[in-house]
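Progress narrative, Year 2. Work on Replication termination factor 2 from Prorocentrum cordatum advanced from sequence curation to structure prediction during this period.
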Amino acid sequence: MGGDGGQVIDRATMVRTKGYGLTKSAGDRYAASLGEMANYTQQLFEDRGMGALERHRTRMSQCFLSQQALCEPVVACRLGNLYNKEAFIGALLNKKLPSRLSHIRALKDVKQCTLSWATEEGERRMVDPVTREILDTGGSRAVLIWPSGVVVSVKTLAELKIKECPVTGTAFDPDKDVIALAPNEEELQRLHDKLPAQTKKRMAAAMEGAALGEPAAAVAQACEQPAAKRSKPTAGEEVFRENAAKSETYKKLFNPDLGPGLTGTRDPLGTPCYNRGPKV
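Result:
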């Protein structure tokens, strides 16, 4: 019928129970369609992408870089991303980290995680070490205690109300050392605000360079410190240069100008010192 009667109303039609979220979470026109029942699943003939729960479970079960299943050892960064350590080290050594990960410069910028696992219906799932609650679902949020590297649920820390890791006993600051894993937009913004000012500057430069097509590694290296500070030699280097300039043996390694063509100091093979390629 058209919603004007002729329908037998039962409890499953009117009472919002567990299945209510299966249809109401879809949003848009499906959230208030005429005659929709609270506890029945809709079948949609369109690709609506991954939902919030699916995205969260994917980020909690897959490496952020390689998109492969997480396997020990696992590391996490200050922005709540999880990585397989092998894939992370490979990308770091090959300078293949994307620009959005410019806050990572070395292995010290990540923390190796102490994870707890359980098998449910033949599938390996990440769980809380205290309550054994599954952490890769949308209904449970996981956090990393940075000093100890232990991954626990938000509910565990909220109920215990302690400032020591419930597994290792390591002291931590709830405001600075608790990193939300697979964060949403609000949590990600809070984690970004906790980063040092120099790191934020490097990330902004890397994102700007990525928009211009520049390599992220080159941009991050350029903004690491001022140019004057990078080019200033140390005391030992200055002494070496002075002694080398006075050495006759050092002077014999170079020939003066050999005539027409490129001028300037040349090496024993006749190639200008500023041109080590094929002789012009």
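Confidence is low (pLDDT under 50) at residues 29-35, 225-230, 276-280. The first helix runs from residue 11 to 14.
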